[in-house]
Design a protein that fits this description.
single chain, Rossmann fold, six-stranded mixed sheet, 389 residues, alpha/beta, 16% strand
Length: 389
């Protein structure tokens, strides 16, 4: 294993990796896993050959992930998802569009990536009970991986979470608590009870390893595009772990000599009814204030306050990208449009990115002929209540 320590994303304080950790003990901000990339670079030939082995799960990137080599990961076959070239939506927008389809992951969303790594490390470091606040897909993924690991799972969800997500969590053995409120209220309830209950909190960016699973999104698109990154990435953003994880992967790949200094312009796509990152980006703020009265049918985007806000905003500005909000009606209509044109039943969060692409083309922020990657983060099957007969 090449993991050396954990480092605070704000104050730089070093933490040991070999015990359960949540946020920085000095300033309360997220921690990043740091690797000895020089040692990894010395194994470059071996590492590249290992990527061609039959196992296509994200654990083929083992040298760039935590967990000692001799420890079996908690895995359901996550990762290795297709990057599909658009047949209609891209040509209609005059761009070279590629769709990273995360709906074929276990539990049908990109949340499987982060939870595989987080649950693997939590089990290895001695956790017995896990807790997570979730507006939907993260809860289902945590419940499934906890069951696979033989750990107790506690999922706190807003009462209006899509029924499919609630049923999924219960049917794979999780203890589900429904809260009158938002995901932030669910997180507050976990924080209040976790010490007494003996829960380890695996909330977004409140432990250091979900992001390590999500960073494999960046590793995969680089490999699938022959180690040349696209011009732009459109990413549906709630807590933002995937956006931050990809950027971390790009930095690590550059240090390994796999890619150059060029980076995609990163665009955060949010719902108009819950757009804290969009509002803060447009106002030039370093942090994003909590978005009051947050509402959207895309439950994965209903995150009124993200602990990684300052990291996301920094990435958007460094990459010369941006942030854009989409109305619920637009994204729901786009689900059918994308389905009929591409054959993909995308989640509303993914559909929002297709709407955002049209807006960004119209404003000139994405130019004709550019290569663009859109992330469909989950399956429309989880959102059947949103669609008519």
């Amino acid at each position: 294993m090449f993991l050396t320590h954990l480092e605070c994303t704000a104050c730089g304080k070093r933490h040991e990796w070999n015990r359960l950790q949540n946020l920085c003990t000095a300033c309360g901000k997220p921690l990043f896993a740091i690797y000895d990339l020089e040692r990894v670079r010395n194994l470059e030939c071996k590492l590249h050959s290992s990527l061609n082995r039959p196992d296509k799960s994200l654990w083929r990137w083992r040298e760039l992930l935590p967990l000692p080599k001799e420890v079996e990961p908690v895995s359901l076959g996550e990762g290795g998802t297709p990057l599909l070239q658009s047949k209609k939506c891209g040509p209609d927008a005059d761009v070279d569009l590629w769709i990273k389809d995360e709906s074929i992951n276990p539990t049908q969303s990109f949340k499987a990536r982060g939870m595989s790594v987080a649950v693997s490390m939590a089990k290895y470091l001695g956790a017995e009970k896990l807790a997570v606040p979730s507006a939907g897909n993260a809860g289902g993924a945590m419940a499934a991986y906890a069951a696979r690991a033989g750990l107790e799972a506690h999922v706190f969800m807003p009462r209006d979470t899509p029924r499919a997500n609630i049923i999924e969590c219960r049917e794979v053995g999780a203890h589900v608590t429904l809260i009158d409120g938002l995901i932030t209220d669910c997180g507050a309830e976990i924080a209040k009870r976790k010490a007494k209950e003996g829960w380890f909190d695996v909330s977004t960016l409140k432990e250091p390893y979900r992001i390590e699973g999500k960073k494999t999104l960046g590793l995969e698109i680089a490999q699938q595009l022959d180690w040349k990154l696209p011009d732009a990435v459109l990413y549906p953003t709630g807590g933002g772990t995937g956006l931050i994880g990809m950027w971390k992967a790009f930095d690590e790949m550059e240090k390994l000599g796999w890619i150059g200094k060029e980076r995609p312009r990163m665009f955060s796509v949010q719902a108009s009814g819950c757009a804290p990152i969009v509002r803060a980006f447009e106002a030039g703020e370093k942090f994003a204030a909590e978005f009051s009265n947050a509402h959207t049918k895309a439950s994965g985007l209903r995150v009124p306050k993200a602990i990684g806000d300052f990291i996301m905003l920094d990435i958007l500005r460094k990459s010369k990208g941006g942030a854009i909000a989409v109305d619920d009606d637009e994204m729901i209509r786009a689900v059918r449009e994308v389905g009929s044109q591409e054959g993909l039943f995308v989640a509303p969060e993914g559909a929002a990115c297709f709407v955002a692409l049209k807006k960004l083309r119209a404003s000139g922020k994405i130019e004709r002929g550019e290569q663009v990657v859109i992330f469909n983060t989950g399956s429309g099957i989880k959102y059947l209540d949103l669609f008519g007969e």
